[in-house]
Amino acid sequence: MMNKAQTFVPLAFGAAIVLIILAWAFPAWNFVMSIGLAKGLAVLGLVLMMRAGLVSFGQGLYYAIGGYSVGLMVNLWKINEAVLLLIAPIVIAALVAAVAGTLLSRYRDIFFAMLTLALSMLLYGLLVKSVELGGTDGFNIRGVTLFGLPLSGAARFNGLVILILISLAGVINLWYFGKTAVGRLLPGIKDNEIRVEYLGASANKTIYISYILAAVLAALGGAMSGILVAHVEPEMAFWATSG
User: Fold this and answer.
1) Which residue, 97, 95, 93, 89, is CA-closest to 73?
2) What are phi and psi of 13, to 5 degrees?
């Protein structure tokens, strides 16, 4: 009998192939699929946090960081290579989450949710008031390429395929993370955090690591959304987006 790993990974690859075929056969669906998959990456991070019983109302913070990182690099520094554009949001989001996580990992339940919401709305207010960042209108992102291959406009299909592959990698890696020692602690924290501490594990440290991973996934989603939609705006950090 095949174990779960032997069945899950082929199913994930099969789903990715089906999505690529649909994107090729129905070009009109590409925009909707792009938005769905980009936000789906952020949702993966939310699912990870929910395994520990925590609900973040502020993932829009990192979704916007991903989108605006790409926008600033393209418009201010004229960097159009997608590899660089995707690496930068990961690094920035990880650094921001590493700082914010030192505070958030100490809180639970509604306190955690409200603090994440507050941080996201702080960024939203900054983006709306900042003329340099496009204000309420945001700004466009044009001319992104991957080794010379266009990723937007008429060639959006190319970027969508890459997004599907990134989503596939995210799903598989998150599944395997759930099988690690840290990943297995998350349901335990949700059920009985005190017992987890008695076992010698640190609940705060486990949540801290998970929070950073969730932030990276949300930033990747925001970056790909910015590339494929070719536009970023403050609404990416708004509470409704997080919801």
Assistant:
1) 89
2) -65, -40
Percent of the chain beyond pLDDT 70? 95
79: left (phi over 0), alpha (psi -120 to 50) or beta: beta
Q: Please, where are the H alpha helices in the chain?
A: 4-25, 30-50, 60-75, 82-104, 109-129, 156-177, 181-198, 203-229, 239-242
User: How far apart are alpha carbons 243 and 233 in whole angstroms?
Assistant: 17
Q: What is the pLDDT of residue 211?
A: 92
Say what the pLDDT of residue 155 is: 65
Spell out, as residue ranges, where the chain has pLDDT lower than 50: 1-2
3-class DSSP state for residue 56? coil
Q: How far apart are CA 158 and CA 154, in angstroms?
A: 9
Distance, C-alpha 106 to centroid of its chain:
22
CB 51 within 8 A of CB 178: yes
CA atoms of 150 and 83, how far apart (whole Å): 13
